[in-house]
Model the fold of this input.
Amino acid sequence: MAIDPNISEPRRVEIATVAVREAQAQKTGGKPMLDFEGESTPYIDYESIDVLLSLQHPRSPVHDEMAFYIAGQVMELLFKLAVTETRAATAHLEDDNIPAACKLLRRITKIEELLTTIWPMLETITPADFKGFRDYLGTSSGFQSYMYRALEFSLGNKNRAMLQPHRGVPSVYPELLRAFESPSIWDVTAKLLARRGYAIDPDHLERDVTAPYQPNASVEAVWLQIYEANDPANELFELGERLMDVAAAFTTWRMKHLVIVERIIGFKVGTGGTAGVSWLRSIIDHRFFPELWTLRTVV
Ligand code: HEM
Done:
């Protein structure tokens, strides 16, 4: 799962300064540029648009498959961005820079909201449309999304079994393993609280970060203290709320996925080997940053 796989060739790089842009606008009289040298445009070169738009290969003759296919690809791109931002926010917390982390947590929430807005487009695929191309998916399933797993690992949902599907994929496994073995943003947040003088259990701070996360009473007690003070000027309170935004938006995405799956395939089994909706229901109760959720019953 290289976050930046160097699969495509490096493109023509062009740097344009303010002076270059102003001269250009003068030349075109403020109108768009229409003539470019060579066999490309600067836009194609900058974002590898031609490569990106050559990656759609629906397998069936069914028209609606393209909508499903592109929705999946768009979600994968957004998972990638969410992973990138989570890593950066985690590094800011390791550096005790809470405002910088909060800025990126806001962005991660917006990415998740964007991900959730993609589901309604898929609601236009009817059960019969989906049935028309479902066989062509073979045993492929979003369950095998390594970028989604990287996001879960970096936010704190560690489950070693989720590495297994990717063991045989050399371009994916080492990076995914690194995400699994690295402390999650929630582990790093506990350490930050301890550095700020809050009483977090030493055992919890030294926990095996690859083990499934177990909610911790000292973590909840510290957050409860911060939440009871209810002080918007406290940057830790701000951090708690921004993390909560991320956790809640993630759960909303999962819930919308569950509803759309039931709407499209009812209670049929999944392509990835699960019982389908009933299996998805069994995982929907998971919450990132669980102590931030449980303290709400106490506050
Ligand atoms: C709209 C048609 C869709 C249906 C009917 C559907 C169905 C399912 C089912 C049944 C599962 C359980 C695993 C299995 O047996 O396959 C699943 C898991 C999953 N799907 Fe979808 N899905 C759809 C679209 C998508 C899209 C567009 C994405 C975006 C990449 C996606 C991402 C996922 C992920 C990440 C999981 C694993 C969830 C987890 O383990 O927490 N699904 N899906």
The chain has 15 helices and no strands. The mean pLDDT is 96. The radius of gyration is 23 Å.
